[in-house]
Structures are given as structure tokens and as C-alpha cells.
Batch of 2 targets.
Target 1
Amino acid sequence: MHHYYKGEGTEKNLEEAFYWYQKAAENEHHNAKYSLASLYYKGEGTEKNLEKAFYWYKKAAENGNVNAQNDLGHFYETGEGTEKNLKEAFFWYQKAADSEDKFAQFNLGRFCEFGT
């Protein structure tokens, strides 16, 4: 998967990377869930789809992926791929910040200061 995405040891092929990340995510590979969400978010290897990105970020966040928790906070804060929900945004930023993620700590501070 990663080799197709980065082009390490093989030719870079985003469609092939998407295929394998999807297979792995559907088989409960937790890191693949986050990677698949990112591909949907960026539209790499597939069409951009914020609802599917949100779905996979949420799955990864629920499995403890700190990056996904921070990203999920963003989705809830902005209403991308889901309905805007500031209570959920705060919850996910806080969860990631508790794991000492510096980006989540920044987002949580900004969120509290400006009350987005």
C-alpha cells in the first residue's frame, strides 16, 4: 500500500494504493483507515469525497488514531463531510490533545479562545 502511494520500490500508483488501503481498512487495519480517509479527503487515487473521508476518519479516531481524532475535530468544527457540531469538535480535539498531539493542542487552544 504505502509503496504504491510513495513510489518506493515500485512506480507510484495512487489508484493501486487506494485499492489496497481500502481492502486493509475494510479488514480492520487501523492505520489503513486513516490513510484511506486521507485519500478520500485529498481525492488521490479516487474522487474526492468528504462524507467518506469523514466516515473513515471517525473509524480511525474511534480506534485511537490521534491524527484522525484531530482531523475529526476539524470536520465537526467546519461541517465538512458531516453536520457542524462544535461539542463533538471540542471532544475530539480534547481527546487528541490529551495524547500530547501538538496540532490538536493548538486547535483546542484556538477553538477555546475564539469559540469558533
Target 2
Amino acid sequence: MTATKKSTIAVVDNNPSVLESLQNLLESAGYGVLLFSSAPAFLDAPWLSAVDCLISDIGMPLVDGFELRRLANRARPNLPVFLITGRHEISKEQRSSEEVHQRFFQKPFDGGELLMAVSNALEGRH
């Protein structure tokens, strides 16, 4: 049996309780988790090349989740990115037009669905 690398998920959200909740969820599924309270904190750190997946809130000051996704995908085109939001004005058309690895989850979201989406995205990369 060969050892497999534990996937590392970066989570970017300016809400500490969301960060803590996602950390608990992802760690319970066996992922390594890196937490960032803002997009600039993530982008200024040398972590972009070390993560296997990115989960980001959309509504953050300075750099929102859409811009973070754009910047991350410019540097890492195949990086799976999941956007979470509490905003209800994100239309179904916007969500359905997104690529497979760039999914929207509206708060409150089902943790099991997020874990399944992350797992599927990571399996698709290997």
C-alpha cells in the first residue's frame, strides 16, 4: 500500500466563525487546512503553490472572492475554487455558468455537499 499525500485546502473568509467551522469540517474529513482572514493575506503568503483547493467567501473587503478566484486561477489554472456566499443576489444563471471546479455554495450550506464537491474536484485532478 502506498502512502497518499493529504490534500491541503485554503479557506479565505473574513468571518472567524466561518473559518473555524470550515476548519473543523475539513479536518474531520482528513484534509490539511490553512486559514486566511482576507484575500490579501492569502495572496501575500507563499501558500498558493502549496494548496490543492481554495474555498473563499465572495463578500470580503479589499479583494472579493471573484477577484481572488481570478488571481488564483491566473497563477494556478487547474486549482479547484469554491465560492461561498450569504448574498442571495447571486443568480442561478451565474452559478450554472461556472466551470465544474468553480462552484457556488450559499450560506448556510450543507457541509456534506461541500465535502463531496471538494473530494470530486480533487479526484479529478489526480
